[in-house]
Amino acid sequence: MTGDAEHAERDGEVPAARPWDKQQLEKTIQWTDYEAFKKDDQAFLQTLDSLIRDGIVFLRNVPTDAKEGHHTELRNLVERIGSLRRTWYGDLWDVKAIEGSLNIAYTNLDLGLHMDLTHFDNPPRYQFLHSLQNTHIRGGLSYFVDTYALASHLHTHSPSSFQTLCTEPVRFEYKNGPHHTKFVRPTFELRQGSSQALHAVNYSPPFQGALPLERLANTKDGSGRESDDAERLADLHSALSEFATLCDDAGGKWRFEHQLEPGECVVFDNRRVLHARTAFEFLEGKEGEGGRWLKGAYMDGDEVLSRWRVLKAKQREDVAKKGRTLFT
């Protein structure tokens, strides 16, 4: 890293995002042993550094002895970084097949690419999924796609679609039992003052509501006049379709796949990295035995960035002390 980025990181700014496709992530993906994550600040900092850059990291050898309730090892893992983000699912929550569930996440059906809680005013930035059990089943493969890489591709190859996804609102909505949340936001949220750098992406087809047609005062076509709703709607449908085609990734260029085994935990940026799961079924004669069981948690982005800054400052201080020792 050179120039402005180097100075920014030296001044305590976090690392820049490093967009990836499958081939790139396979070369750089961070795997950290849980003991090192807990006890070695250098390994801890490196893990957070990769999480901020790539939007995804994996930990291995996370204990699975305690499975039930809200005081499993996942809580200790998350609180090594900062505070849990509590939602109506609780501090921690389970992902396993439940007969008759209205939430597709709690079935054995295919769960397509999505982000969690996009219908919230402030969706959680980071998500943790700890594999507790994965036995006597076929399928259940986890896969991930970096939307920052897809957005960069659109910016280069289809700038009009990129611009449409930056400006046109999309409604996300969830209504189930005692809960009804909805929020309207563009697919691509840019950093303040930037025409390209992303702050977050919002994409979750299972929770996408009817497209809002309210006129935006600053929405104009190339001539400088305001576009009519029909034209804007057609442009939005086209841009979303183009983005969805990249997400579906028939050629396998963008999709990173991994079968989460017991003791492994994936941590990813829920405002950047799409996640999904293939359908699974019990092996013949093993119905009711074993299964696929993940424990999940959320965390706000400030928690990760705060911990990174503190660790980075300590690292610089330690380096400075060693330097002074050499000259005394």
From TrEMBL:
UniProt protein name: Gamma-butyrobetaine dioxygenase
Keywords: Dioxygenase, Iron, Metal-binding, Oxidoreductase
Domain of life: Eukaryota
Swiss-Prot/TrEMBL GO biological process terms: carnitine biosynthetic process
InterPro entries found in the cross-reference section: AlphaKG_dependent_hydroxylases, TauD-like_sf, TauD/TfdA-like
A molecular function (GO) term: dioxygenase activity
Database matches in Pfam families: TauD
All residue ranges annotated as the TauD/TfdA-like domain in the record: 33-298
Classification of source organism: Eukaryota, Fungi, Dikarya, Basidiomycota, Pucciniomycotina
Essential cofactor(s): Fe(2+)
Gene source species: Rhodotorula toruloides
GO cellular component terms given for this protein: mitochondrion
Family: Belongs to the gamma-BBH/TMLD family.
